[in-house]
Design goal:
- The protein is mostly helical.
- The protein has one domain: Winged helix-like DNA-binding domain superfamily/Winged helix DNA-binding domain (Arc Repressor Mutant, subunit A, Orthogonal Bundle), CATH 1.10.10.10.
- Helix content is 64%, strand content 0%.
- It is built from 4 helices and no strands.
- α1 packs across α3.
- The protein is globular.
Length: 67
């Protein structure tokens, strides 16, 4: 079972909306480096290679739905 933190889910949803790291950091009020850290964690936990791969994997696993 893959466990993402609430913040990781929040960032993953924004990645799925095609937001840049800078846009995500501004929206969530955190540094770009912190966003990058969370994205790295998401990619690792979902065993993906890229941000897009993480989104696709999350959809396949039912962790993220397409709106």
């Amino acid at each position: 079972m893959i466990k993402l933190t609430p913040k990781e889910y929040e960032i993953l949803e924004r990645i799925a909306e095609d937001k840049t790291n800078n846009e995500i950091s501004l929206e969530l009020g955190m540094s770009r480096r912190t966003v990058e850290y969370h994205i790295s964690s998401i990619i690792r936990k979902l065993n993906a290679e890229t941000r897009l791969g993480a989104v696709v994997t999350a959809i396949k696993l039912g962790l993220l739905s397409i709106k």
